[in-house]
Task: structure prediction
Amino acid sequence: MTDSKPNSTPESSYLWKNPLTAWGTATANAEAPSIPVPDPATVWRESTTFKVQTYLVGRLKYFIVWPTHRKATWDRLRWWPTRRNILNIRAHYNPKTDVSEKKILDRKPIYWLFALVALLLGPLIFPDNQMNALMTAGATFGVFAAINVCWTLIIGTAGIFSLASYAVVGTAAFVTSLLSVKYGVPWYVLPPIGAVVGLLFGALIAAPALRLDGFYFALLTLGLNELFRVFFTTSKQFGSASGGLYGADSFIMESWAPLTQSMVAYYSSLGLLFGALLLFRFINGKQLGRVLRMAPEKREAFAAACGVDYRRARITIFILTSIALGFIGGFYAAQYRGVAYAIFDFHTVLMGLAMITIGGIGKAEGAVLGTLMVIFMRDVLIEWGSWRYVGIGMAMLLVVLFLNNGYFGIRRQFAAWRSKKRGEWRSTRAEKGGEVLPEEATEISDKDSIYFRRFDKMQRDYLKTLISPQIIDEHRAQPLGQHSEALERVLLYFRRSKMDDKYALHRAGPQGPFKIIAFSGVRGVSPRLVDDREYPTLSDAYHAIFMRRVHDLMET
Amino acid sequence: MDIAFLITNAIVVASIYGLIAIAVSITWSSLGLVNLGYGFIFSVAGYAAWLVADNVSSNPILIMGAGILGGSLTGVLICLVVFIPLHDKPAFTTRGLIATLAISLIGSQVLLMMFGPTAKALPELFGRWKLKMLGMTISADKIGIVVCSVLMLGIVVMWMRGSRRGLEIRAMMMNPHAASIVGIGIRSTGIYVMALTGAMAGLAAVLLSQTYYISPFSGLTPLIKGVSIALCGGLGSVQGAVIAAILLGLVEAATNKYLGGQYVLITQFLFIIIVLIVRPRGIAGLLDKAREQ
Result:
């Protein structure tokens, strides 16, 4: 004990207890001051605890779990006479509790029902001083939402970026108004005539759509819109003086009270919206829509190779929707007793584009919500003046800049963003827990060896804390014999090591000197000489091996 | 009406709209951006020129310079707001188109609030002299318009052919992905392209205001005409746009002569539709390979 390092204080603080004293067989002293030994369990605990911070937010979708109705668990509401379910419900027995329960997997129909009921009951809750403005805006909303839902079918489902939807509506409205004004056609014939006009114009516009792709068609339809505007405003038949063509027959009688008139207009346009939604459901949700979901942009060739005639499906949707748009045009003429040139304005197309963009292109709910927002800003917040258009433009710009697919795409975009971030965070906190990395663990068939290596690492981590000048001095003084607990633990580990590359001593002569060798671990292969140093006595050789092993341990 | 008069008119109109068409075309082919904000750039450039003419001086070069500067700054603004944040996002083309439309909506409303709805007129930049040539009289503004736009187009083409930046822009037009791989910055090139095309639209605005008034929404018709010409010529081709501008000018002149003024747009669009049905990539489909998406 020649070291000047503080070696007396731990000896006094740590007491070795002779285990034999408990049996009464101890011949030596019952306890003695010794080198401190930390608790092996601390290393174990430290390397087996889960150090990754966890949050309550998870990827699990939150479903309300409803109790079931016993025998009625398996009953379903169905659309008569088909076997289609109204609600997508999953009923099962909870595997943990064995209690039967059910979850509504798709809650959209319920939200739609609430929204439509709210629209139906709207006039009851409108404030009296705003009643007139809100009813007018509501009627406009119904008609524009119907147009936008149809437009969504063209842009979203069919993938034809047409900007001429309002032109089709306007043309149908002008033609039917003209017929009604000139020849006294009654109001109930106007929508069907409008549908015929829509069919003709749809077919006319569809011809270039077959050849042109994407934005060539968008720019062409933008020009067509302007062409229609100039044509209708300059032609004499369509009354270029009054800013529009008015005087068509209407289902809203002028003899009714003003409130009744606006009520009828409100509910009829809601009915129109409902019809447009049904059309959307039956085109987007059935064969045509499914066929086109198989053939998204830039994968048309693959779909065509699978036998999907996507061109035909697109044109069919385009023409069906044009018929619907023409019908809406006739309805527009019948509701407003005519139509203004403003429907062909670039500004109208812009507003329409804002409506379908804000909610999310390709979704009926997006079109309806966007229309609601834009119509509310434009027709109800009139006192804002020009600022309301700036607001609409800002909403449109922000949505386009920050959202991939409008308001109703936020959820999916957020989920994608979160999973990306989660991956990034996971990669920053990946650490080498044991000797085996997770990647190599899958390649090792003997899982025992994985656990052994993990345990071995923990053990070495612990033993490193035991190596101190005191135990080295102790070993130099007495390589064999009774040792302190710390030295004994280290030596036990060294003795237990594997035979390959295990150190041994080679006696060069009958009395020495000794050299350190290492076993090859392979039968028939002789040991190798580790180095040329010779040790005169056996104790020196023992201590040299010990030091070599200590170095190896500290280096791992 | 005299056919020569109509043809000179057609050439004058074609030279103005041709500038916008080439701007639209270059933007689309190099950046992949369908910029429908040129209407707004047009109005801003017109107002900038008007402000200079009203407050500073009536020197034509100064006024034109103000218009070009205003247009090019607005182009850079659109690039900063739309192109740079969006160019690497999904569905860039659709979103870029809608974003430029949103900017023109906001911008025209702001212009309306700033300058009011009354239209503004620029002074005559080229004087009142007339030139008798080949038995017809051509007024100064027509000659000035044609000379200025041809000059601008010539400078742009020279710059695109001769300079390092022009080489970068042409590389982007050929293959933007490969251009970015060999070290051409997409964003910096975007700023050059938008400044250049904005300057072209600004000059077109000043030239067109010799005939029409400046108002917040006055950019719409030039935009639609320019887009139609660019479509007909094939997006991405300067030669195609020039040919299409001349052809459409001739169609306009012929319609004016034989059918009447109100049928001009109809015949023009029928012409465009026929061209596009025959050549879906426009006239340039005959000349060279246009950018494929």
Q: What stands out?
A: Chain B has a mean pLDDT of 84. Chain B has one domain: 3-287.
